[in-house]
Design goal:
This protein is mainly beta. It is built from five helices and 23 strands. Among the domains are: 88 residues, no CATH class; 137 residues, no CATH class. The protein is 9% helix and 24% strand.
Length: 351
Amino acid sequence: MLFRSATTNALYISDSVHKKGGPIGGNFTRVGIGNRVENGIAALTANITAGSYEIGELTATVSAAGGLSSNARLYLIAANNDTMADVVDVGIPPTNGSVTNAMIALKGVTIDRMEFAKPAFTLDSFDGNAEWEDNVTLKLSGTATKNTSLGIGTLNSSNVAIVHRTDVALATAHTKAADGLHMMTAPGNYANLAVKVLAQTSIANDPDSAVAPLLPAGSIIAWGGAAAPVGWLQCDGDVIIRATYAALFAAIGTTFGAGNGSTTFSIPDLQNRIPYGADAVALGTATGTAIAAAGATSTASQSLTPNTGTTELSSGAKDAGSTSAINVITIPDHAHTYTVPGLAINYIIKT
């Protein structure tokens, strides 16, 4: 005898001997009838908890509704606990190597499938800081003798990749160069890298230290503009606030002037001056007089008094007498001026 249940939309057989110990009850069983169809995963869940499945049953979850079309799967009922834990997905498992590229639709991997669980390899492996423990690492790995790369773009034959090189020849000849990432083109040449901000290891080249700007605070360069760009100040001897320019103050301190001695300090004054290397003259010492508006400089004024000899000279005929010759010459104070060949330009300092 066949019996159709309107509640579960399924057929049953009256056979109390050959059923599989299911929870359906009485003489009814579904053994041997075949797979069952549910209107999506929600309907399957409801009927599982209602106790309308037996061990060994197959059920397909299909629906004409567009929002449920992704639920089209085939499941096996493996237990009689009336929970979704009894349900086994008997579709193609992703662990058997049978999922190929052709089985994935173009743009079929969505953002919610690209979230990474916390791996064992995290940043706290390096510094021990607990705050890094929840970071996620995308690990690209290969064999010890092969390069690892992350390809970028497919615009032309010379695609660019970020490569961690493990070449034996490179590692032997350039140990430091091989110990890091390389931006390379597909044929193996180095590619250009255009960036807005560039960082490098700090000046001391300490691999354990934090990165520092390519031009650290305190760097002085020649500048062709009339005004300093953002992040720089003109070397005009100005007095500035220590707290506002903390990085610059940490670099130069009060070398070029202590300001008010507590909250301010001075920056170098290179106006009308030529910089030179410090050694015998202490760092920060300004020497001489600044070059004048005409680009000329003067020596200090000096007084010269030459020494001369004396002699008596005849003034004319015999016994007519004599006259005196000049025996002292005094040169009055004066200055020598010389012009320094050059070009006026601004010097700026990184803050």
